Amino acid sequence: MKTPPRDPAPRDPALPWSSLLVLGGTTLLMVTAEMLPTAVLGPMSAGLGVAESSTGMLVSLWAAVVVVASFPLVRLVRDRDRRAVVAGGTVVLAASSALTALAPTYTVAVGARLLGAAAVGLLWATVNAHVADLVPDRHLARAVAVVLGGATLGMVLGTPLARLVADAAGWRAAFWGLAALTAAAAIAVRLVVAPARQHRPTTADPGAPASPAARHGVAPLLAVTGLVALVLVGHYGAYTYITRLTEQAAAILPGGTGSLLLVFGLASAVGVALAGRFGERTEPALVAATAATGLTLAALAIDAVPALGVAVVAAWGVASGALPPLAQTLILRLAGPERRAFAGALIPVLFNGGIAAGAALFSALVATAGIAAVPVPAAAVVGAAAVGLGLAAGRRRAAEPRRAAEAAVTTL
């Protein structure tokens, strides 16, 4: 009697590279749009007839709008196809850049920027959630690293290229170019990005493994989110003054501060790439990256050897570059499919809130104690968060056997 052939083992699907690369390109443009006023600060200020401090406020206002607008907008479109939401948000971002390019006055530019900020808040939340739905959980770290690699390139390449365009053809041309590229990205999102493919367990599917959210509830998600926010306060508090903290190190490099910032940016890209290689070991990797960030911040206080300063900046870039993809992956994993939209909105609020709080708190510190006072408190804040993340990870690991035993008893 012939034995019927067995069903082949389920094939491990490859990453949806075309979808991830388009979404990564979109995040590159999102970051470029946010930071573009800093790249064209002088000519934009002159063109609008305002002080450079007023033009700089366009970036701060952007972050504030992202924090305020993300949750309401996500709730407004919660039942829509996420691909349509990303494409539509990208169109609005393109319109914002075009309106900024046309702005005859500072007030009009502010209005255009507020529109773009609201779109980006929605875009970050939706892109985060859709990436998690595109891939199985075991591939989440790699997928997040690919998409956030675009955001890193926005800092490393997007704003410098925009400055080159502004120098050659004026600051308005830089915004026009960004508007055109963003419109093209919206078309690519609609045509290329795949629909969600990840299976979502339901109560009708009792055989499906419970997600972390179902096993542990929302408390671990909120705890990790709060600790990551603390990391960002310390990191961005110091990064706000990176050019002042690294003056001696920059002096030994051709190109000075610009070259050192390029070193930091390229090192951050390495950190993003490394973060994608940890797979399901995201939590210990996040603890390690946080601890390494704290150590490099503390090392900034040692300015006796400029060459050592360059090495410290590179190490800081690698460690801090790994933080966003690792943190985002862990937050999405803890949320599970049940709270993915909530977690997607939480991430831009967390990052922009951390940036704003860090810059504000350390600005007050610098005003009272000077630049030299920044590294040690920044390191202490990040170190405290690393300890908290380590303790939280230990508690979850200790709880797993007990929860597994309870689940086994329930099935008897």
CATH class of the largest domain: Mainly Alpha
Please give the share of residues in helix.
Answer: over 70%
Low-confidence stretches: 5-12, 198-208, 404-411
The number of strands is: 0
Query: So what's the overall shape?
Result: globular
Counted by DSSP, the helix tally is 16
* Main structural class: mainly alpha
Q: Outline of this structure?
A:
The protein has 16 helices and no strands. The protein is mainly alpha-helical.
Mind explaining what this structure looks like?
The chain is mainly α and 412 residues long. It folds into two domains: 17-192, Growth Hormone, Chain: A (Up-down Bundle); 212-411, MFS general substrate transporter like domains (Growth Hormone, Chain: A), CATH 1.20.1250.20. The chain is 79% helix and 0% strand. It has helices at residues 17-39, 41-48, 52-76, 82-102, 106-134, 140-169, 171-192, 212-216, 219-239, 242-245, 247-251, 257-275, 282-299, 306-335, 340-369, 375-411. The longest helix is centred in the C-terminal third of the chain and has 37 residues, at 375-411. The chain is globular, with a radius of gyration of 22 Å. The chain crosses the membrane at residues 20-39, 59-77, 84-104, 110-131, 143-162, 174-196, 217-239, 251-273, 285-302, 308-331, 343-365, 371-393. It is a multi-pass membrane protein. It holds the Pfam family MFS_1. Residues 18-396 form the Major facilitator superfamily (MFS) profile domain.
Which terms would index this structure?
412 residues, mainly alpha, Growth Hormone, Chain: A, 2 domains, disordered C terminus, MFS_Efflux_Transporters, cell membrane, transmembrane
